[in-house]
Amino acid sequence: MTTVTAGGADAPGPLPPVKSGKSVLGTRPWMALCFLLPALLLLGALVVYPIGFSVFRSLFDKAGSGFVGLDNYGEVFTDDNNLTAVKNTLIWVIVAPCVATTLGLIFAVLTERIRWGTAFKLVIFMPMAISMLAAGIIFRLVYEQEPDRGVANAVWVGVHDTFAKASAYPGARPGPMADIAKSAGGSFTTKSAVASGSPADLPLVGVLAAKLPDASDAVRAEAVAGKVTGTVWLDFTKGGGGKPNVIDPGEKALKDVRVEAVKDGKVVARATTGKDGTYTLPAAAEGAKLRLPAANFAAQYKGVDWLGPSLVTPSIIGSYVWMWAGFAMVLIAAGLAGVPRELLEAARVDGASEWQVFRKVTVPLLAPVLAVVLVTLMINVLKIFDLVYIIAPGASQSDANVLALQLYLTSFGGDPDQGLGSAIAVLLLLMVLPVLFFNIRRMRQERRR
Q1: How many whole angstroms separate alpha carbon 27 and alpha carbon 270?
Q2: Which phi and psi angles does 298 have, rounded to 5°?
Q3: What is the spatial distance between Cα 390 and Cα 393, in angstroms, rounded to a whole number?
Q4: Segments of the chain assigned to CATH 1.10.3720.10
Q5: Which value, to the nearest 10 degrees, does the dihedral of the CA atoms of residues 365, 371, 372, 377 take?
Q6: How many CA atoms lie within 13 A of 384 on its CB side?
Q7: For the structural domain made of 71-154+306-448, what CATH number should be given?
Q8: pLDDT digits over 115-144, tens only?
């Protein structure tokens, strides 16, 4: 239908009404449903059904025949292994995403200021190309206890030994019939006080003679009036023989051993043995007891037990951050590229320092991107399994346990209990839901802007 205007031109009439049974775009609802049906069936088979079955199965016992109600959920929060898994999962959710996001932010900001920033980003992002399995094997070797096998301990031992050298006599101890016994702190102290004019010999055993090839033969110290003298030596004769507590021919001297004279708990004199093992203390040592400090027998530093009970969880989190800091950096760098440069320059013109520009301008503008990265990593760590299962040795796996690993061990371990395993799965789902709802809400708010 058309109408004639004053100038004689035809004007378009009103639009024809939309036919019933079709949308505004003219698509029939049943046709849209046909296109969506395969995706809906797949979604139901892979998501809805497993969730529903897990909730249903969690209400039954191990065999699946007896209804137990919420007993399985009660066991999650009473069993020690399950409680450890819950605690470690919370640590993962709080620590790992925050550390990875912080490092990603620092890397993204710093790489903008260097010419080879692209190459740096490539190196940091490269671990993302490695599977969790491969990363777990790599870090299992990195955290090896022996310094000649583990990279982390090789570096740590090198730094430590630069400032604190090990003793030449680790494991040395007094002979069974010597007048000296173990005291506090790993030191050795004589049982009786010493007097001048009579050498106070201190025999030790427990040192391999093969490790003293250049040592001089021990010499009995001469008595000196008004001073305390003596000898520290290895009371061991090759081939056997010899008398205990007596310096026999061929027995080796222990040089550079510190000797302290102690009275009433205070050190009144000190001396160090010479090449022949002898030492001399001043008259102040008269009537004191002699002590060989523990530093004389300090064992060689073996490094840090990275995979021990106390450090296994932080160590595995470190390997996760190594993998995912590059992911955070790339996303944040993309967001940083969209920050208006005139705002940054205006802040600098107003006298703001670089730190103030970063804290009060850059970070607030990047808040939406940081939220995306943080939420993504939080959801990711809730299902962490591979790294913990591979890196943690059997002795400390229970200390590094997380919910995803506990779910696997409970459902498919030596004594499977799929009722309890299903309860753990439902608990994991409940932990993910708040993060998921927060992410959906944030995306809706972004669309409204």
Answers
A1: 98
A2: -60, 130
A3: 8
A4: 71-154+306-448
A5: 140
A6: 34
A7: 1.10.3720.10
A8: 888 888 889 999 988 888 999 999 999 998
